[in-house]
Amino acid sequence: MAATNNQNPREFAHFKRVCGAWTIEALQARFEEHRFAAHTHDTWSIGAVISGAKDISAKRGGGQVFQENQVYCLPPDSPHAGRVVGKACEYVMLYVPDGAWREQCESLGVDLRQFQHRLPADTRQARRAQAFVDRIFRSPEAIGAWAGEWSLFCESLLDKYRSAPRLTESASSMRADPALARAYEYLHEFWNRNVSLSDLSRESSMTTSDVCRRFSAAYGLSPHRYQLVLRVMEAKVRLLMGAEISEVASETGFADQSHFGRHFKSILGVTPGTVAKGGRRHR
């Protein structure tokens, strides 16, 4: 990827790499004058235009222009370049290994071919991508420490592209499946550890996509979201018993208090501090 010469003080480009189950790279950038030479990446390139517009055509007149709030996804080895359309363009990028992106799409029942076409502008999707990249820059250890962070982001980003489930079994019959029960028990036993889809695949003797799809159908939540709920509910119990917020965050598997607080409020609608105060008033 070409680099800016940074002569224009209004331009910036920030790069961060996160190493966890997969190595994911992130870019935050704003350009006015800089032009990227034609190039490729050996990863999927997932971009979201935050403001302005950009033309990523590798050849003149290619017409690959993305506007504000559009999310786009380029397969590995796709030739592209980059120039601003208009006065300025701010955007974020994620560079994701082929295996990591395919694993998420397959587990969620998303056809990868959808992303080889232009996607409609979607403010919510663009903001989700921006928020995830922001978290990578603010708390890379949180993203790298738990594979669920990546899976939950993909779940929120890809949800609208999921195909209808093809499973015809009832949820109760699937829960009775010994293989799926082993995955369920493993999540409960190691609720505060970094449980990956590969771990659940090994325990259940299913592929990662099968265990994710069947678990979601049986329990109504993806494995990583289910594990997140287990962590938050246990954290709530400990807060009500008088434990300190920082201790609870660490003991329940969260990388830091910011990471803990964000997920806690997303599930319960209140902050950990609010719950802790409520517990103290009733002791």
UniProtKB/TrEMBL annotation:
The keyword DNA-binding applies. GO terms for molecular function: DNA-binding transcription factor activity; sequence-specific DNA binding. It comes from Paraburkholderia azotifigens. This is AraC family transcriptional regulator. The keyword Transmembrane does not apply. It comes from the Bacteria. PANTHER family: HTH-TYPE TRANSCRIPTIONAL ACTIVATOR RHAS-RELATED. Residues 181-278 form the HTH araC/xylS-type domain. Gene3D superfamilies: Homeodomain-like (1.10.10.60). Pfam families: AraC_binding, HTH_18. Keywords: Activator, DNA-binding, Transcription, Transcription regulation.
